[in-house]
Give the backbone structure.
Amino acid sequence: MPQRPTGPAPPAQASLGDSLAPGWDEPDGELPPPDWGRSRGPRRLATVWMFALFTLALAAGNAWLSDRLIGEAFLAWATVFTAISLQALPFLVFGVALSAALTAFVPASFYRRVMPANPFAAVPAAGTAGMVLPGCECASVPVAGGLIKRGVAPAAALTFLLAAPAVNPVVLVATAVAFAGQPEMVLARLAASFGAAVAVGWVWARMGRTDWLRPPRALHGPGASRWQAFRESMLHDLMHAGGFLVLGALAAATVNVAVPRAWVSALADMPVVSVLVLALFAVVLSICSEADAFVAVSLTEFSPTAKLAFMVVGPMVDIKLIALQGGTFGWTFVRRFVPLTLAAALVSTFLIGGLLL
């Protein structure tokens, strides 16, 4: 058997793995040394000092800035940020729990029996399934990730992601309550949202590529129990998606406060421009789909089609949803999926709004 060289390898032969694992020079297949990967004494001490300085900085900032952060703009920003976060968090937890349950307890064969094998036929079936499950866009992202984990075609899972927060019974009832005496608005929202979701799914089934979408990885070994798989998947997805939800809420609150409402109202009299303005407004405000109808009906200076755009675009494309999608499926996916979804939502809004409103 040839002897393995004992001297140090030349710099040109050093691998990336060697640079990431200093001190690891055992044969392949054996466990690393007991101290490999553990913090050394000085490094651990530096971490403690960094944490202590960070805590001290927080205390000093609270003492110096607590009396200054009472301006009207800051209070409005804090209110919007808190409202978005608290409104979305229960649905995010629900979606994460449902996604973990789909991953752990529902066998992959179930989806193969229920969903058509042909992706083009599975897309409208997934859109119809979205009409049954109550939830907002925050819940639909982890659920779609769970469906992809179980072998559902990405085009069908993405159709469900778009349809579920826009056409489920809770949203339609809320829309009927907000637009009392206007059943055409409920029908228009259902038709425009469902049509946009199915159109995006069919386009993705025809033109989408697997390397554009980063599928969620499994977090447990093959021998893990169902409850262990459920717990690990839920904890990981909750911490991961929750962080991106906070980032999205921060961005939405900042833009919400920075853009004067008077600028928006001045454009309400322009038919096409008003639709685009309220679509952009929906992206920025990031309101949960269960509540957006009540905001839309309050925008009395805008046309019915513009209000429809607000309710169709918001559940499919908003700041916090973009952040959640980027954290779950990757930013390569977002760069392609978001423009496609926005275009489909606007085209569907103009078509259905022109026919029904």
Q: What stands out?
A: Confidence is low (pLDDT under 50) at residues 10-41. Residues 50 and 63 are 20 Å apart (CA to CA). The radius of gyration is 25 Å.
